[in-house]
Amino acid sequence: MLGLILAQAAAGAGVAKLGACIGAGIAAIAAGIGIGRIGGSAMESIARQPESTGDIRTNMIVIAALIEGVALIALIVCILALFV
């Protein structure tokens, strides 16, 4: 009985590690897509209104930094899930 419980726990740990790796990959890909869309939208906005380039660029950098922060936190959570 104890062997069965340990085998199930080991299998569950493998699934948890797989989930953590998939979660880290999704977080990295989603951050890349989000920052890419922000950059594209900012360039389109600058092309339409060149006089507001400074404001658009500042807002773009702030939003990109926030997305990077969320992605970093997601990656850290996934890495911590690997070791628990």
What is the fold's blueprint, element by element?
Layout: H1 2-48, H2 53-83
Helix pairs in contact: 1-2
Describe the structure.
- With 84 residues, the protein is mostly helical.
- It has a single domain, classed as Up-down Bundle (F1FO ATP Synthase), CATH 1.20.20.
- The protein is built from two helices and no strands.
- Helix 1 packs antiparallel against helix 2.
- CA radius of gyration: 20 Å
Number of DSSP helical runs? 2
What structural class should be given to the helix and strand makeup? mainly alpha
What is the CATH topology descriptor? F1FO ATP Synthase
CATH superfamily: F1F0 ATP synthase subunit C
CATH architecture classification:
Up-down Bundle
What's the CATH class, please?
Answer: Mainly Alpha
Low-pLDDT runs of 5+ residues are: none
| Residue fraction in strands | under 5%
Number of strands: 0
Whole-number tally of structural domains: 1
Please provide the ordered H/E string of secondary-structure elements.
HH
Main sheet attributes: strand count, strand direction, barrel closure: none
Distance between the termini: 24 Å
* Global geometry: rod-shaped
> Approximately how much helix is present in the residues?
over 70%
Average pLDDT, all residues: 87
